[in-house]
Queue: 2 jobs
Job 1
Amino acid sequence: MPESPPSTTTLCPSCAEPLDAEDRFCEHCGADLSRTASGADPSTAGAAASPSGAETPGAAGGAAGGAPSAAGPAGTDGRHLGSAAADAGTPGEGPGAAGGAAGASAGNPAAGTAGAGSAGAAPSAAGTAGTGGNPHGGAHPRAAGAGQDGQLGGGHHGTGQPGGGAEGDGAATDAFLLAPPQAAGGGDTLALGVPLAGAKVSDPREEEPAEENGTVCVACGLGGVDADGYCEHCGHAQPRKRDHQEQELEGVAAVSDRGLRHHRNEDAFALSTTSLPDGTPAVAAVVCDGVSTAYRPDDASAAASVAGNESLLASLERGAPAEEAMRGALMAAFDAVSALAEEETQDGVPHHNAPACTCVSAVVTGPVFTVGWIGDSRAYWIPDDRDRPSARLTEDDSWAARMVSAGLMTEAEAYADDRAHAITGWLGADAVEVDPHVAAFQPESPGVIVVCTDGLWNYAESAAEMAEVVPPDARTRPLHSARTLVGVALDGGGHDNVTVAVLPFPAAVSRAGFPPAQVTEGLGGAVNGL
């Protein structure tokens, strides 16, 4: 049987890899084989000959993995001059080349130069005579030249026609450099997200994350926060707005903190200032502590503080006596908390454990201040002169207080019992009885009223202990004092939420109805002297 004649193997003109007869593109380098028919030799990395025999510098070597750029010979279509590398480039294999100037004299065939290309991007190129090249691959830099816009490659000087031939008669042009490829929109990357050479590669840890609903995780700094308060990226629980709050008005300041053991802050406070009908300023603070064993304790304290504060202001502004206004405020707070039980029902049946909280409030009006409370949140009087006695102004509605008042146990014994903090009075729909406690005081000297939850007084229970931790300048720096007292509770262990309001007395308000000097001259005795 006769042997078959040896087959002729066709090689890729760019990478010399074997080709099949039906191939239109090289499977190895991606070169467009149909363009070789035009007469341009993609494998040539040299220069076209000039009439004088000198060589014009052409494109020099391509980057690894890409086809080298080349300059076409004289008389070829200008679209192909210097464009073989652009046609052969594949994603991630774009060649880079440093091109020289094109023909330097009339009649010298123009040799297109390939600009510096970055990985994956088509190289730029321009004709000698054209003022701007049109590189393949999407980027459109403009290059300075003598003529009008030309196609990629060279053209007649001053004509912008493609395919510079021997008939060109224009004057020689100076060498020029192509502008680097520009990204769409002027950024640091080309189309398809390929970075430009020399572009700064950003560290994702330094990038600004895309915010969702305007909130970014405080732990990882990347994920958005869902409606439940958890990071969608790392799952970290986010601090709630109430975890730490501070407020300062003229004559009063308060700070509330979640503490170190609780997962949320169930305390709440409200501060306000107003004027009595006679122009006397009034400064008030309402502090509430949610009962943790009740349902929705955080909502209960928030509702009570807002309702109590609004009622207190309204009553004072219409001229009601401070004690009457305070009693009305406590009842308004009770109604607000009780209403929460009506909102939460299961199949028409109220929740088995209604929302509940305690409440303590103080208001300074002229030479007198008034305190009202239900539960075991407290108020203390701390004079500026620490040689004078401080005082606890409230009596707890608690099991321990009842044991002491009944003479069954000493105070030390009662508060050492596990049942000490079981409250006997609170605000809520299931309260056994609602008995607002109100008392008015007229101190003989200046000082501060400290209104707080048991998250603080558990670490400074007696009036003497509280006086030791209240800063000496509390009356002139109430916010600093409140922060310091919260710090005392946190340093002590922070086992509970802690909320503290500090009210200077006399009221540190510019419209005070009496000179501060009068307070130091002895104003006590009208109500309860301190």
Note: Residues 1-6, 37-181, 183-196, 512-526 have pLDDT under 50 and may be disordered.
Job 2
Amino acid sequence: MARGLKIGTTFAAVFSLFAGLIAATVAGAAPAGAAPAGAAPTGRTVIIGVPGLMWRDVGERTTPALWRLTGRGAGGALSVRTTKVNTCPTDGWLTVSAGQRARLPQGDCVLPASPVLPGSGQATAPGTAPPAAEGATAPGWAEIKKDNGRGTYHAQTGLLGDAVRRAGGCTTAVGPGAVFALADGDGRVDRYVPSADRATAPDWARCALTAVDVDDLFRVYLDAGVDADGDQVPVTPADRRAAAAAADRRIAQVVAAQPAGTTVLVAGLSDIGVTPHLRLAAAHTLGARNGRFDRPGLLTSSATRQPGMVTLTDVTATALMSLGLQQPKQAVGSPWRAQPSRMTTGERAEALEDADVAAQAIGNVQGAFFLVLGGAQLLLYGLAALALRRRRRDTPESRARILAGTRIVALVGAAAPVASILAGLLPWWQSSHPAPALVCAVVGFAGLVAGVAVAGPWRRSVTTPGLVITGVTALVLAVDVMTGSSLQLNALMGYSALVAGRFYGFGNQAFSLFAVATILSAAWLAEYPLRAGRKWLAAGIVAAVGAAAVLVDGLPAWGSDFGGVLAMVPAFAVLGLMIADKRVSAPRLALFCLAGAVLVLFISYLNARSANPTHLGRFWQDLESGGAWDTVARKFQAMLRSLGYWPFIIPLAGAVGFLFFALVRPIKARTPLLERAYEHSATMRPALLATLTMGVAGMLANDSGVVILSVAFSLATPLMLAASVRALERDHVRADRSGSPRSESPSSVPE
């Protein structure tokens, strides 16, 4: 234990020092120059924003215009998350403007304010330019720009309008919200029309980029108002259908006025009320052959890599692409792409509506799942402690049943995390009772995996049943990220499309599971050559598994995980050094921390040179421009905020308490619980210390912070308990056969 504490303390100090050096390097990087201006616009684009629009609003008879757009073009489920849990209309329009999550500072969730018009007598705020002769100015633009620039995401509002203007193009805004989307850095649009009904043919033909605000759907909720408690007065399904039909008529009017070759982008770019949803996204290139969106399909982008899933920040990138303009690096989205689909229009609309159903279902049960998982494990540890302290008067048969039952329950608990991922193979959210269906799916898969662990000839081993579970966990997660990460999307230990933090690769929770699973698998695979006296082979197994795990985790095409590489390299180094019976010194640990940082920065450098860099490549670009410190600071602040997330803190505290109890409180005379497992397994101690190293490093290197450590314990602790109980079972059987006292320390028992 003292050695483990020394290693952990040394690691934390080295890691913190190295993080400080990286931060200093990032902060001192020289800023890059402005992006060069692109060529003149070569296409025409119309962005139609319909705040609150969802796929369940679309029907062949009720919304024929949207039905035709979907049938002839591509559709997707749109994640509209900006800076808050729920996105308001102006927030959505400003996000289109910046190509980054943006917001209206200190604003109520209402429709966008009317713009400042020429000759209206309205005074513009200081720092805001007056409107052009036929244009308009966004009210309060100077404060909006300042607030977003100093906010968490440093959104550059006006980016889309500036890009068009630098290229020699102009912008037309139809409706108040469109002004916030297309305003340039000074808050101005070139041409303004109050509504689609008042737009003329010259208005539609004037500029290459037009945005249209269609607010019928959101307005019906505003008109309904709120009750005395401030809650939304419910809107009847008939009123919502009528509002959607009105919005559809406006969309039809806009589409009919566009010439052939125009790219029409429809986005339900905000929420209604406090509950977030996935909204509608549709794209169609009118009357063009071989256009980008001229065939039926599903929308996707490099930002999601998920068929039928796109984000609000992608709208900016898509508009710039369709205009033939260069995308500034401040715009973080990726252009929409159409994946051909043989599904009918109705089938695609139903599948995209189903994506929101899944997102809602997982959001409703995710918090409860972690509470139940943590509470069940704490209950298990308490019952195990009581069972393992039973007096000698128990019969051998009774004692054997207690130990066997405790071990099996622990293995089922260890299989629960991967079972929560495998549950995505079943459409549980389509059930009339999603929560019970999900519970049944998780319990079923956990029982299946645990059954395999205890059913084979390895069932009497101390470590091999755990190896089966960790192997399955690592394999499932590796295959998932290598084939598109579909199981992690809307999973209990995956990521939520509503949060939109990540859509592919390893999320923080899945990374923690994968890292712990690979560390324990490597250790327990090395058990056999280590017992045979082949340390070089055991160390080679650890190195091979570690290299494969780091590649799966860090490569942009698969795990695409920056912080994971920083955590896994030193963790596997600790494991390898201890198995090779080498001293884990501060210089060696610092060297491996440096190696992890160099490796992930090299991956980032290569990815930054690709056509579609991920967040890894964008970090290198930020490093070159001097903006990477903002990313580091945002991640660090998020890590600190995670310390206040009690659904994870409680299980973590319970797991740490159990570990402390197991190490310092004797079960029998002078023999701690883990000592039994240590004496039966030469790799148990290195495995647990490497896991703790990964947990500490992952907590420091990822924005989820303590969640990393909590998820790591959710897998490692029950496996440790199962191995320890199995060691006790073997000791009791041996003692009963020999008649020797069971409190004596057992000698090494061959597997």
Note: The first helix runs from residue 2 to 27.
